[in-house]
Design brief:
This protein has 2 domains: 80 residues, Alpha-Beta Barrel (TIM Barrel); 105 residues, Alpha-Beta Barrel (TIM Barrel). The longest helix has 18 residues. 37% of the residues lie in helices and 14% in strands. It is an alpha/beta fold. It has a 7-stranded parallel sheet with strand order 1-2-3-4-5-6-7. Helix 1 runs parallel beside helix 2.
Amino acid sequence: MRPFQFITHSNSRFNYVEGAKQALEGGCRWIQLRMKNKSDSEIEEAASLLKPLCSAYGATFILNDRVDLALKVKADGVHLGKSDTDAAEARKLAGASFIIGGTANTFNDIVALANKGVDYIGLGPYQFTSTKEKLSPILGLDGYRDIANRCKQAGIELPIVAIGGITRRTFPPFLKRAYRALPYRRPSFRLPTP
């Protein structure tokens, strides 16, 4: 699994696809298309542009929330939030080779998702983020360390992706402190210039 995942968003400078393209150009090889409160047709349109772009860069393409749409647009996988389709049900629908990620905020969330056969965990939020409407409790560096240690003690070896509030400002301290506890080697990666 690739150690960095870019989760799309839009702002006054770029739309979902443009932001993902910047991340790909910056070296990211794992893109999650996340378009909350958008219609199926808007999501499919963005996916139709992102899928070939990800393929051109050799990147993994994940769709947020919707197993049905992820299968329809031929994404590599789906990321399921806490209130989305059950991960075990998604696995039945999508099959063994489809990547399924799940959102967690606690060690118990991770245990439940591991038992349902997810391929990776999106753990967070690391810090405050305005991109999430119903924000779970913020974990911070200490929360990540604690959960990573508990996973290690329990023999849970699922890859963990830190999510929520990861920015150019918060990223270096995370790499320096919390990242050491996560089950990855330090990658080479540069953030795109804003």
